[in-house]
Amino acid sequence: MNGVGIRDVARLAGVSITTVSHVLNDTPQTRVSAETRARVRAAAAQLGYGPNRAARALRTNRSGLIGLLSEEIATTPHAGRIILGAQDAARAHDLTLVIVNAERESSGGSHRDDVQTLIDRQVEAVLYATMYHREVSVPANLRDVPAVLIDATDRDGLLPAVVPDEVGGAVAAVTHLVEAGHRRIGFLNNVDDVPATHERLVGYKQVLHRHGIVAEDRLILQAPSETRPGHALAREVLAGDDRPTALFCYNDRMAMGAYQAAAELGLDIPRDLSIVGFDNQELIAANLFPGLTTVALPHYEMGEWAVEMLVHLLSGDADHKRLPDGPTRLHCPLVTRGSVAAPREPRKA
Amino acid sequence: MNGVGIRDVARLAGVSITTVSHVLNDTPQTRVSAETRARVRAAAAQLGYGPNRAARALRTNRSGLIGLLSEEIATTPHAGRIILGAQDAARAHDLTLVIVNAERESSGGSHRDDVQTLIDRQVEAVLYATMYHREVSVPANLRDVPAVLIDATDRDGLLPAVVPDEVGGAVAAVTHLVEAGHRRIGFLNNVDDVPATHERLVGYKQVLHRHGIVAEDRLILQAPSETRPGHALAREVLAGDDRPTALFCYNDRMAMGAYQAAAELGLDIPRDLSIVGFDNQELIAANLFPGLTTVALPHYEMGEWAVEMLVHLLSGDADHKRLPDGPTRLHCPLVTRGSVAAPREPRKA
DNA sequence: TTGAAAGCGCTAACAT
DNA sequence: ATGTTAGCGCTTTCAA
């Protein structure tokens, strides 16, 4: 592409190609005079030299590529943030990210071919990212390369993994509500048997307990995590006289349903009802009135973390298998918009 | 990675590495007996041989990489569909897609560095995709490699480009409304000076004209293409007595605002008011009640088209610069959900 | 402190 | 119809 090779630099600098290589790669254990280094650097810069990666890859047997296997990149903006984080981290290590989209697999036959595609493309390692936080059993050929899981945990617990701190996120959300003065806080939870369902509930209860509020079963409802069921649940929990003054929703879609329910019931958000969501789906959260206060998933950070872990693995320091015992949990920050206010009746109506 | 090289295959098949190369690459002008071919193929399969791409790249001076420079991959699901289309097409040609996320640039200094990143990574060609359909002036270094524009046109008109057929999409939307029996159809348009604003208006007028309906200025409103302004516009146009029975919205976010306005006005969708959006943002369109009938942008198809064009360019047939005069326009299909019905008063109230 | 030279795995021009 | 061989541009051992 460029035409200029290491030889051109060597010629211009008046040294051997070996020296150029040493200088440009900061090869350790090689003493080159400061003067020569400068000359080489200048020559390289002047010529706009960049290494031929194929040649380097061939010689070093390192492709400089890492693969990211991502489920359903197409339908979720979340995947985008993971990619972004991975991308940035990869670039910082002069690695190139190769992405492969995988269909969302229902059961076992999980992505063997997609992993193979990556391996065929000679990636040095692979990132395996799922669409939502869950436990997976990874394809067997993933054992052929260093691998890190993103937003997923390995059923066999062998691979390093990074996931959101669901409990912490829920704690942040509900604490925010409690600190605004709410004590009757409903929880519109998901029904799926996934970590988020269980852990967000744990966080919810933890906060209530910490503040001496008894968790009422009546206030904890479950339905599929979609807008419509969220709407139904909200109508239900908002029906009685002693309705909650705030709702913590499993995700932003359910919160969207709650908004609709509130509108139908003539309840003003946040004056009559405060709502906190989860996921921070911009398209929803920012387009609702008022803006939805919600908890953000650390997608960018997980992508970043995973690449760093991969680099670590690749560097060989991995011999000291310093893998933490369980998956690494990353903080889920609260994103404040306009859907939370003090309850109407500060202390009982 | 794999350990098995062309030599191993040659040895197992009892032929020279040349023959293996010829067979496996289907090198033209090379006569190899069917029997030998079979033997080589079998040996390769048996060993699970895959070519070392670095070696091949070094030798052929083709990296097998193509770059996709995408604006704001992170915040829009649209980018995901472009990637997917490009990905699939690339894979079909045994090409690997390298993606680079670019910040959304306001003015001139457009993405020079991002293009350079790709060039440094030795991509053979680059796809340049913008976040929404518009005219750009591409960075100068994009002239150094074959390039194709996605969802954008080149100010200088030199690069092949593929964009959505905005007029056609609007025609499909409004025709759908007219065929449902509507004659008073409002258009909540964008204000930005972008192709979509102008062309969707053209499509809207075209359909009205074709059906002998006079376009009333009163029914054509403009505002920023967000939920809130959409809401305001809808309130405005829905205020009078002879309000429109249907609304064509510039995008799904504005349509979302229109839904809210309808709810406030006690108008049932689609009984009292039909709505068609544009963009098919799943997160919005599928989560509204009723589901929003809207027009889909051909993101996947544009990504696909662009890679095919690139391959064509790369193949050298490009000498016959068979570039169509303007950008290629791809069809925007209507996606029917539940927001359109016949108007309440079939022929005047 | 610097340089000569081998060779990574493959393709393709040129034998045979 | 098949085989020999010369590099592609780089890193790295080894020698000077």
From TrEMBL, chains A, B:
One of its GO terms (molecular function) is transcription cis-regulatory region binding. CDD domains: HTH_LacI (cd01392), PBP1_sucrose_transcription_regulator (cd06288). Keywords: DNA-binding, Repressor, Transcription, Transcription regulation. It comes from the Bacteria. The keyword Transcription regulation applies. PROSITE patterns: HTH_LACI_1 (PS00356), HTH_LACI_2 (PS50932). The keyword Nucleotide-binding does not apply. InterPro entries: HTH_LacI, LacI/GalR-like_sensor, Lambda_DNA-bd_dom_sf, Peripla_BP_I. Gene3D superfamilies: 3.40.50.2300, lambda repressor-like DNA-binding domains. Residues 4-60 form the HTH lacI-type domain. This is LacI family DNA-binding transcriptional regulator.
